[in-house]
Amino acid sequence: MPRDAESQYRAVAAVQRRLNPILRRLPTQTVLETTGRVSGLPRRTPVGGRRVGNSFWLVSEFGERSQYVRNIKADPRVRVRIRGRWHRGTAHLLPDDDPVARLRALPRLNSTAVRALGTGLLTVRVDFER
């Protein structure tokens, strides 16, 4: 990873460590819950994305470096809280999808931040259980 990208990753990660505990408590915030690959405990991460039919789409700003992506690789069973309601599903990492094009179809504010701050975009799709 280029030095500038590493510095950007560290800076954004430091801000997110302080901001995410507050955001995930907000009832209107969409939250992705994974299982910690080492601890086995639930890990909740505020995310931006959009439900389309029986799937939820999001783009990870740091790709496979994101802790929640690493957790998904270990166990793809997840939950997503949308408008205060939890949905169980299976997450799929889509490295062949165009994340920049995908961001155009997702909520604008989050997409702008992900494009501006991200250094290794990766599309993630969660297929909900029926």
Number of helices: 4
Beta strand %: 25-35%
Low-confidence stretches: none
Quaternary class: single chain
How far is the N terminus from the C terminus?
40 Å
SS elements, strand count: 7
Report the biggest beta sheet as strand number plus sense, adding barrel if it closes: 7 strands, antiparallel
Q: Name the structural class.
A: alpha+beta
Average pLDDT level: 89
- Specify the overall morphology: globular
Helix content: 25-40%
Strand ordering within the main sheet? 2-1-5-6-7-4-3
Q: SSE order in H/E notation? A: HEEEEHEEHHE
- As a whole number of angstroms, the C-alpha radius of gyration is 14 Å
Provide a descriptive summary of the structure in words.
The chain contains four helices and seven strands. The chain has 130 residues and is an alpha+beta fold. It has a seven-stranded antiparallel β-sheet with strand order 2-1-5-6-7-4-3. The radius of gyration is 14 Å and the shape is globular. Helix content is 35%, strand content 33%. The mean pLDDT is 89. A hairpin with a 2-residue loop joins strand 5 and strand 6.
